[in-house]
Amino acid sequence: MHAWPASEVPALPGKGRDLRIHDTATDGLVTLDPGPVARIYVCGITPYDATHMGHAATYNAFDLVQRVWLDTKRQVHYVQNVTDVDDPLLERANRDGHDWTELAERETALFREDMIALRMLPPRHYIGAVEAIPGIVPLVERLRDAGAAYELEGDVYFSVESDPHFGEVSRLDAEAMRLLSAERGGDPERPGKKNPLDPMLWMAAREGEPSWDGGSLGRGRPGWHIECVAIALDHLGMGFDVQGGGSDLAFPHHEMGASHAQALTGEHPFAKAYVHAGMVALDGAKMSKSKGNLVFVSKLRRDGVDPAAIRLALLSHHYRADWEWTDAVLQEAVERVGRWRAAVSRPDGPSADALVEEIRAALADDLDAPSALAAVDRWAALQQAEGGTDEGAPGLVSRAVDALLGVAL
Ligand code: 5CA
Ligand code: ZN
After folding, report:
1. pLDDT digits over 170-194, tens only?
2. Is residue 61 part of a domain?
3. 79 alpha carbon – ligand 2 mean position (Å)
4. CA 286 to ligand 1: nearest atom
5. Whole-angstrom distance, CA of residue 332 vs CA of residue 306
6. Does 279 sit in the ligand 1 pocket, CB within 6 Å?
7. CATH at 258
8. Which of 84, 151, 240, 376 is most exposed, with minimal Cβ within 10 Å?
Protein backbone atom coordinates (compact mmCIF):
# COMPACT_ATOMS: atom_id res chain seq x y z
CA MET A 1 0.00 0.00 0.00
CA HIS A 2 1.30 3.49 -0.65
CA ALA A 3 1.51 6.01 2.17
CA TRP A 4 1.26 9.75 1.49
CA PRO A 5 3.79 12.42 0.52
CA ALA A 6 5.84 13.99 3.30
CA SER A 7 5.65 17.68 4.04
CA GLU A 8 9.08 19.23 4.22
CA VAL A 9 10.75 19.32 7.63
CA PRO A 10 12.82 22.51 7.88
CA ALA A 11 16.33 22.13 9.30
CA LEU A 12 16.99 23.86 12.61
CA PRO A 13 20.27 25.05 14.07
CA GLY A 14 21.78 22.72 16.69
CA LYS A 15 20.35 19.39 17.67
CA GLY A 16 17.35 18.11 19.62
CA ARG A 17 17.39 16.12 22.85
CA ASP A 18 16.83 12.44 23.40
CA LEU A 19 13.22 11.52 24.01
CA ARG A 20 12.00 10.51 27.45
CA ILE A 21 8.58 8.95 27.20
CA HIS A 22 6.00 7.11 29.27
CA ASP A 23 6.09 3.34 28.87
CA THR A 24 2.87 1.51 29.76
CA ALA A 25 4.74 -1.72 30.59
CA THR A 26 6.74 -0.10 33.41
CA ASP A 27 4.28 2.74 34.07
CA GLY A 28 7.26 5.06 34.16
CA LEU A 29 9.32 7.36 32.00
CA VAL A 30 12.09 5.80 29.94
CA THR A 31 14.78 7.65 28.04
CA LEU A 32 14.97 5.93 24.70
CA ASP A 33 18.34 5.32 23.19
CA PRO A 34 17.68 4.37 19.60
CA GLY A 35 20.63 3.84 17.33
CA PRO A 36 21.12 5.98 14.23
CA VAL A 37 17.86 4.53 12.94
CA ALA A 38 14.96 4.78 15.37
CA ARG A 39 12.25 2.17 14.86
CA ILE A 40 8.56 2.75 15.55
CA TYR A 41 5.37 0.85 14.81
CA VAL A 42 2.06 2.67 15.14
CA CYS A 43 -1.24 0.86 14.78
CA GLY A 44 -3.18 2.24 11.85
CA ILE A 45 -6.88 2.67 11.17
CA THR A 46 -9.58 0.15 10.46
CA PRO A 47 -10.91 1.97 7.41
CA TYR A 48 -14.69 1.78 7.70
CA ASP A 49 -15.31 5.42 8.56
CA ALA A 50 -13.50 8.74 8.24
CA THR A 51 -10.64 9.99 10.44
CA HIS A 52 -12.06 11.50 13.63
CA MET A 53 -10.37 13.79 16.13
CA GLY A 54 -9.47 10.80 18.35
CA HIS A 55 -7.51 9.15 15.55
CA ALA A 56 -5.94 12.47 14.64
CA ALA A 57 -4.85 13.06 18.26
CA THR A 58 -3.20 9.64 18.43
CA TYR A 59 -1.34 10.06 15.12
CA ASN A 60 -0.34 13.56 16.21
CA ALA A 61 1.38 12.10 19.29
CA PHE A 62 3.45 9.67 17.22
CA ASP A 63 4.19 12.30 14.60
CA LEU A 64 5.81 14.28 17.42
CA VAL A 65 7.92 11.24 18.30
CA GLN A 66 9.12 11.12 14.72
CA ARG A 67 9.86 14.86 14.68
CA VAL A 68 11.82 14.74 17.96
CA TRP A 69 13.94 11.90 16.60
CA LEU A 70 14.52 13.65 13.26
CA ASP A 71 15.66 16.69 15.21
CA THR A 72 18.28 14.49 16.93
CA LYS A 73 19.58 13.83 13.39
CA ARG A 74 18.46 10.23 13.39
CA GLN A 75 16.68 8.46 10.63
CA VAL A 76 13.26 7.18 11.54
CA HIS A 77 11.95 3.87 10.38
CA TYR A 78 8.21 4.25 10.89
CA VAL A 79 5.77 1.47 10.06
CA GLN A 80 1.99 1.68 10.14
CA ASN A 81 -0.69 -0.83 9.16
CA VAL A 82 -4.21 -0.57 7.78
CA THR A 83 -6.61 -3.19 9.13
CA ASP A 84 -8.30 -3.54 5.77
CA VAL A 85 -10.14 -6.73 6.62
CA ASP A 86 -11.77 -7.24 10.02
CA ASP A 87 -15.22 -7.82 11.54
CA PRO A 88 -16.25 -4.14 11.99
CA LEU A 89 -15.26 -3.30 8.40
CA LEU A 90 -17.19 -6.27 6.98
CA GLU A 91 -20.20 -5.47 9.19
CA ARG A 92 -20.28 -1.83 8.06
CA ALA A 93 -19.95 -2.77 4.39
CA ASN A 94 -22.78 -5.30 4.80
CA ARG A 95 -25.01 -2.84 6.64
CA ASP A 96 -24.59 -0.21 3.94
CA GLY A 97 -24.64 -2.62 1.00
CA HIS A 98 -21.11 -1.67 -0.07
CA ASP A 99 -18.27 -3.79 -1.32
CA TRP A 100 -15.86 -4.12 1.64
CA THR A 101 -12.75 -3.58 -0.49
CA GLU A 102 -14.18 -0.37 -1.95
CA LEU A 103 -15.15 0.88 1.51
CA ALA A 104 -11.63 0.20 2.79
CA GLU A 105 -9.99 1.86 -0.20
CA ARG A 106 -12.21 4.92 -0.01
CA GLU A 107 -11.68 5.49 3.70
CA THR A 108 -7.94 4.85 3.47
CA ALA A 109 -7.71 7.44 0.68
CA LEU A 110 -9.57 9.93 2.84
CA PHE A 111 -7.26 9.16 5.78
CA ARG A 112 -4.24 9.93 3.60
CA GLU A 113 -5.75 13.28 2.63
CA ASP A 114 -6.41 14.08 6.28
CA MET A 115 -2.85 13.15 7.23
CA ILE A 116 -1.44 15.37 4.47
CA ALA A 117 -3.64 18.29 5.55
CA LEU A 118 -2.50 17.89 9.16
CA ARG A 119 1.17 17.63 8.13
CA MET A 120 1.62 14.19 9.67
CA LEU A 121 4.82 12.67 8.35
CA PRO A 122 4.13 9.41 6.51
CA PRO A 123 5.33 5.97 7.60
CA ARG A 124 8.12 4.49 5.51
CA HIS A 125 6.07 1.31 5.13
CA TYR A 126 2.28 1.48 5.04
CA ILE A 127 0.98 -2.08 4.96
CA GLY A 128 -2.52 -3.47 4.65
CA ALA A 129 -3.65 -6.59 6.51
CA VAL A 130 -4.66 -8.22 3.23
CA GLU A 131 -1.26 -7.75 1.64
CA ALA A 132 0.36 -9.08 4.84
CA ILE A 133 -1.52 -12.42 4.73
CA PRO A 134 1.26 -14.38 2.93
CA GLY A 135 3.59 -13.39 5.80
CA ILE A 136 1.03 -14.09 8.51
CA VAL A 137 0.26 -17.71 7.54
CA PRO A 138 3.77 -19.10 8.22
CA LEU A 139 3.88 -17.32 11.59
CA VAL A 140 0.64 -18.97 12.69
CA GLU A 141 1.90 -22.33 11.43
CA ARG A 142 5.10 -21.87 13.42
CA LEU A 143 3.20 -20.99 16.58
CA ARG A 144 1.00 -24.05 16.13
CA ASP A 145 3.96 -26.34 15.43
CA ALA A 146 5.73 -25.02 18.55
CA GLY A 147 2.68 -25.77 20.69
CA ALA A 148 1.90 -22.10 21.28
CA ALA A 149 -1.31 -22.29 19.26
CA TYR A 150 -4.14 -24.81 18.95
CA GLU A 151 -7.11 -25.52 16.75
CA LEU A 152 -10.73 -25.17 17.74
CA GLU A 153 -13.35 -26.13 15.15
CA GLY A 154 -11.06 -25.07 12.34
CA ASP A 155 -10.06 -21.74 13.94
CA VAL A 156 -6.57 -21.35 15.39
CA TYR A 157 -6.04 -19.76 18.81
CA PHE A 158 -2.93 -18.46 20.50
CA SER A 159 -2.26 -19.87 23.94
CA VAL A 160 -1.45 -16.93 26.23
CA GLU A 161 0.25 -19.35 28.60
CA SER A 162 2.99 -19.96 26.03
CA ASP A 163 4.55 -16.57 26.79
CA PRO A 164 6.01 -16.24 30.30
CA HIS A 165 5.83 -12.45 29.88
CA PHE A 166 2.10 -12.40 29.13
CA GLY A 167 0.44 -9.59 31.12
CA GLU A 168 3.52 -7.42 31.41
CA VAL A 169 2.43 -4.79 28.88
CA SER A 170 -0.91 -3.79 30.39
CA ARG A 171 -0.35 -5.18 33.92
CA LEU A 172 -4.06 -5.80 34.41
CA ASP A 173 -5.61 -8.39 36.69
CA ALA A 174 -7.40 -11.42 35.24
CA GLU A 175 -10.89 -9.99 35.69
CA ALA A 176 -10.04 -6.69 33.97
CA MET A 177 -8.46 -8.62 31.10
CA ARG A 178 -11.56 -10.74 30.70
CA LEU A 179 -13.86 -7.74 30.58
CA LEU A 180 -11.69 -5.86 28.08
CA SER A 181 -11.23 -8.95 25.96
CA ALA A 182 -15.02 -9.27 25.57
CA GLU A 183 -15.34 -5.56 24.83
CA ARG A 184 -12.51 -5.33 22.30
CA GLY A 185 -12.89 -8.12 19.80
CA GLY A 186 -12.08 -11.19 21.93
CA ASP A 187 -14.38 -14.15 22.67
CA PRO A 188 -13.73 -15.16 26.31
CA GLU A 189 -17.08 -16.99 26.46
CA ARG A 190 -16.38 -19.40 23.60
CA PRO A 191 -16.40 -22.97 24.94
CA GLY A 192 -13.39 -25.17 24.29
CA LYS A 193 -10.66 -22.56 24.68
CA LYS A 194 -7.70 -23.41 26.89
CA ASN A 195 -7.78 -19.98 28.46
CA PRO A 196 -10.75 -17.63 27.95
CA LEU A 197 -8.32 -14.84 27.00
CA ASP A 198 -6.68 -16.77 24.15
CA PRO A 199 -7.07 -14.67 20.99
CA MET A 200 -7.71 -15.94 17.49
CA LEU A 201 -4.76 -16.15 15.13
CA TRP A 202 -6.57 -17.54 12.12
CA MET A 203 -10.30 -17.64 11.53
CA ALA A 204 -11.54 -20.45 9.28
CA ALA A 205 -13.53 -19.22 6.28
CA ARG A 206 -17.12 -18.24 7.14
CA GLU A 207 -20.01 -18.37 4.71
CA GLY A 208 -20.36 -15.07 2.83
CA GLU A 209 -17.08 -13.62 4.13
CA PRO A 210 -13.82 -13.14 2.26
CA SER A 211 -11.14 -15.78 2.83
CA TRP A 212 -7.60 -16.51 1.71
CA ASP A 213 -5.43 -19.55 1.23
CA GLY A 214 -3.90 -20.37 4.62
CA GLY A 215 -1.68 -23.30 3.59
CA SER A 216 -1.92 -25.98 6.27
CA LEU A 217 -4.32 -23.72 8.23
CA GLY A 218 -6.99 -24.02 5.56
CA ARG A 219 -8.85 -21.10 4.00
CA GLY A 220 -9.61 -18.22 6.30
CA ARG A 221 -8.48 -14.80 7.42
CA PRO A 222 -6.04 -13.56 10.03
CA GLY A 223 -6.79 -12.47 13.57
CA TRP A 224 -6.18 -8.84 14.48
CA HIS A 225 -3.08 -9.02 16.71
CA ILE A 226 -1.01 -11.28 14.48
CA GLU A 227 -1.50 -8.80 11.64
CA CYS A 228 0.49 -6.10 13.44
CA VAL A 229 3.08 -8.61 14.67
CA ALA A 230 3.76 -9.95 11.17
CA ILE A 231 4.12 -6.44 9.75
CA ALA A 232 6.31 -5.20 12.62
CA LEU A 233 8.60 -8.23 12.56
CA ASP A 234 8.91 -8.07 8.79
CA HIS A 235 9.81 -4.38 8.65
CA LEU A 236 11.36 -3.63 12.05
CA GLY A 237 12.36 -6.89 13.77
CA MET A 238 12.28 -7.61 17.51
CA GLY A 239 13.22 -5.02 20.09
CA PHE A 240 12.15 -1.94 18.14
CA ASP A 241 11.93 1.32 20.03
CA VAL A 242 8.25 2.24 20.27
CA GLN A 243 4.97 0.41 19.79
CA GLY A 244 2.29 3.08 19.63
CA GLY A 245 -1.46 3.51 19.62
CA GLY A 246 -4.35 4.82 21.66
CA SER A 247 -4.77 3.62 25.24
CA ASP A 248 -7.63 1.36 24.12
CA LEU A 249 -5.00 -0.80 22.38
CA ALA A 250 -2.89 -1.57 25.48
CA PHE A 251 -5.13 -4.57 26.18
CA PRO A 252 -5.72 -6.85 24.43
CA HIS A 253 -4.03 -5.69 21.22
CA HIS A 254 -0.53 -4.73 22.35
CA GLU A 255 -0.45 -7.30 25.13
CA MET A 256 -1.32 -10.12 22.70
CA GLY A 257 0.97 -8.77 19.99
CA ALA A 258 3.93 -8.75 22.35
CA SER A 259 3.15 -12.31 23.45
CA HIS A 260 2.76 -13.56 19.87
CA ALA A 261 6.15 -12.11 18.94
CA GLN A 262 7.87 -13.29 22.12
CA ALA A 263 6.51 -16.82 21.71
CA LEU A 264 7.60 -16.84 18.06
CA THR A 265 11.15 -15.66 18.59
CA GLY A 266 11.94 -16.62 22.16
CA GLU A 267 13.19 -13.05 22.53
CA HIS A 268 11.94 -10.31 24.83
CA PRO A 269 10.80 -7.56 24.55
CA PHE A 270 8.85 -7.06 21.36
CA ALA A 271 9.12 -3.28 21.81
CA LYS A 272 11.32 -1.27 24.17
CA ALA A 273 8.47 1.06 25.05
CA TYR A 274 4.70 0.75 24.72
CA VAL A 275 3.35 4.24 24.31
CA HIS A 276 -0.35 5.04 24.55
CA ALA A 277 -2.27 8.19 23.76
CA GLY A 278 -5.29 9.23 25.80
CA MET A 279 -8.84 9.00 24.50
CA VAL A 280 -10.63 11.94 22.95
CA ALA A 281 -14.28 12.19 23.90
CA LEU A 282 -17.30 14.00 22.50
CA ASP A 283 -20.38 14.74 24.61
CA GLY A 284 -18.97 12.82 27.55
CA ALA A 285 -18.16 9.55 25.76
CA LYS A 286 -15.06 8.23 23.96
CA MET A 287 -15.27 9.22 20.29
CA SER A 288 -15.75 5.96 18.46
CA LYS A 289 -16.90 4.71 15.12
CA SER A 290 -19.12 2.15 16.77
CA LYS A 291 -20.90 4.80 18.89
CA GLY A 292 -21.01 7.35 16.08
CA ASN A 293 -20.26 10.41 18.29
CA LEU A 294 -17.69 11.76 15.90
CA VAL A 295 -16.07 14.94 14.66
CA PHE A 296 -14.33 14.22 11.39
CA VAL A 297 -11.15 15.91 10.22
CA SER A 298 -12.49 15.88 6.65
CA LYS A 299 -15.76 17.54 7.69
CA LEU A 300 -13.92 20.36 9.45
CA ARG A 301 -11.70 20.79 6.39
CA ARG A 302 -14.78 20.95 4.15
CA ASP A 303 -16.23 23.57 6.46
CA GLY A 304 -13.15 25.68 5.77
CA VAL A 305 -11.38 25.16 9.11
CA ASP A 306 -7.64 25.77 8.76
CA PRO A 307 -5.79 22.43 9.23
CA ALA A 308 -3.10 24.29 11.19
CA ALA A 309 -5.79 25.22 13.72
CA ILE A 310 -6.98 21.59 13.92
CA ARG A 311 -3.41 20.53 14.58
CA LEU A 312 -2.96 23.20 17.25
CA ALA A 313 -6.18 22.07 18.92
CA LEU A 314 -4.70 18.55 19.16
CA LEU A 315 -1.37 19.88 20.42
CA SER A 316 -3.03 21.92 23.16
CA HIS A 317 -3.65 18.70 25.13
CA HIS A 318 -1.00 16.43 26.55
CA TYR A 319 -1.01 13.24 24.50
CA ARG A 320 -1.55 11.03 27.55
CA ALA A 321 -4.56 12.96 28.81
CA ASP A 322 -8.13 11.94 28.09
CA TRP A 323 -9.88 15.06 26.88
CA GLU A 324 -13.07 16.29 25.33
CA TRP A 325 -13.37 17.86 21.91
CA THR A 326 -15.48 21.05 22.01
CA ASP A 327 -16.03 24.03 19.74
CA ALA A 328 -14.16 26.13 22.32
CA VAL A 329 -11.03 23.97 21.93
CA LEU A 330 -11.08 24.64 18.20
CA GLN A 331 -11.90 28.35 18.61
CA GLU A 332 -8.94 28.80 20.95
CA ALA A 333 -6.68 27.13 18.39
CA VAL A 334 -7.98 29.37 15.60
CA GLU A 335 -7.14 32.42 17.71
CA ARG A 336 -3.72 31.05 18.61
CA VAL A 337 -2.75 30.39 15.00
CA GLY A 338 -3.83 33.96 14.20
CA ARG A 339 -1.61 35.41 16.94
CA TRP A 340 1.37 33.28 15.90
CA ARG A 341 0.98 34.20 12.22
CA ALA A 342 0.84 37.89 13.06
CA ALA A 343 3.97 37.51 15.20
CA VAL A 344 6.05 35.73 12.53
CA SER A 345 4.91 38.00 9.71
CA ARG A 346 6.93 40.93 11.07
CA PRO A 347 10.42 41.51 9.62
CA ASP A 348 12.19 41.18 12.99
CA GLY A 349 11.45 40.28 16.57
CA PRO A 350 12.82 39.17 19.95
CA SER A 351 15.57 36.54 19.74
CA ALA A 352 14.13 33.04 19.33
CA ASP A 353 17.19 30.90 20.12
CA ALA A 354 15.97 30.19 23.66
CA LEU A 355 12.47 29.46 22.37
CA VAL A 356 13.76 26.71 20.06
CA GLU A 357 15.48 25.09 23.05
CA GLU A 358 12.31 25.41 25.13
CA ILE A 359 10.24 23.65 22.46
CA ARG A 360 12.87 20.94 22.19
CA ALA A 361 13.01 20.47 25.95
CA ALA A 362 9.24 20.33 26.29
CA LEU A 363 8.80 17.72 23.55
CA ALA A 364 11.72 15.59 24.74
CA ASP A 365 10.02 15.50 28.15
CA ASP A 366 7.24 12.99 27.37
CA LEU A 367 5.99 15.01 24.39
CA ASP A 368 4.81 17.96 26.47
CA ALA A 369 3.22 19.84 23.58
CA PRO A 370 1.11 22.16 25.80
CA SER A 371 4.34 23.51 27.35
CA ALA A 372 5.82 23.95 23.88
CA LEU A 373 2.74 25.95 22.83
CA ALA A 374 2.99 28.06 25.97
CA ALA A 375 6.60 28.91 25.11
CA VAL A 376 5.61 30.02 21.60
CA ASP A 377 2.73 32.01 23.11
CA ARG A 378 5.20 33.88 25.34
CA TRP A 379 7.45 34.74 22.38
CA ALA A 380 4.43 35.89 20.34
CA ALA A 381 3.19 38.03 23.23
CA LEU A 382 6.62 39.65 23.60
CA GLN A 383 6.72 40.30 19.87
CA GLN A 384 3.28 41.89 20.08
CA ALA A 385 4.10 44.00 23.13
CA GLU A 386 7.68 45.07 22.48
CA GLY A 387 8.90 43.64 19.18
CA GLY A 388 12.63 43.11 18.78
CA THR A 389 15.58 43.64 16.50
CA ASP A 390 16.57 40.10 15.59
CA GLU A 391 16.00 39.81 11.87
CA GLY A 392 16.25 36.02 11.83
CA ALA A 393 13.83 35.46 14.69
CA PRO A 394 10.41 35.35 12.98
CA GLY A 395 11.76 32.95 10.33
CA LEU A 396 13.36 30.75 12.96
CA VAL A 397 10.12 30.55 14.96
CA SER A 398 8.19 29.68 11.86
CA ARG A 399 10.68 26.92 10.94
CA ALA A 400 10.79 25.54 14.48
CA VAL A 401 6.99 25.42 14.78
CA ASP A 402 6.85 23.61 11.45
CA ALA A 403 9.75 21.17 12.08
CA LEU A 404 8.88 20.27 15.66
CA LEU A 405 5.12 20.72 15.88
CA GLY A 406 4.03 20.16 12.28
CA VAL A 407 2.24 23.51 12.11
CA ALA A 408 2.72 25.63 8.98
CA LEU A 409 2.42 29.33 9.81
N1 5CA B 1 -6.71 -1.00 13.18
C2 5CA B 1 -6.67 -1.02 14.61
C3 5CA B 1 -5.25 -0.98 15.13
S4 5CA B 1 -4.25 -2.23 14.47
C5 5CA B 1 -7.47 0.12 15.20
O6 5CA B 1 -7.55 0.19 16.42
N7 5CA B 1 -8.05 0.95 14.34
S8 5CA B 1 -8.99 2.19 14.79
O9 5CA B 1 -9.37 2.82 13.54
O10 5CA B 1 -10.02 1.75 15.62
O11 5CA B 1 -8.09 3.17 15.59
C12 5CA B 1 -6.94 3.76 15.03
C13 5CA B 1 -6.11 4.40 16.12
O14 5CA B 1 -6.84 5.49 16.71
C15 5CA B 1 -5.77 3.45 17.27
O16 5CA B 1 -4.44 3.74 17.72
C17 5CA B 1 -6.76 3.83 18.35
O18 5CA B 1 -6.25 3.57 19.65
C19 5CA B 1 -6.91 5.32 18.11
N20 5CA B 1 -8.21 5.84 18.58
C21 5CA B 1 -9.44 5.36 18.30
N22 5CA B 1 -10.40 6.10 18.92
C23 5CA B 1 -9.74 7.07 19.62
C24 5CA B 1 -10.16 8.15 20.48
N25 5CA B 1 -11.44 8.39 20.73
N26 5CA B 1 -9.19 8.94 21.02
C27 5CA B 1 -7.88 8.72 20.76
N28 5CA B 1 -7.43 7.72 19.96
C29 5CA B 1 -8.34 6.91 19.40
ZN1 ZN C 1 -2.33 -2.84 15.56
Report:
1. 999 999 999 999 999 999 999 999 9
2. yes
3. 11
4. 25
5. 13
6. yes
7. 3.40.50.620
8. 151
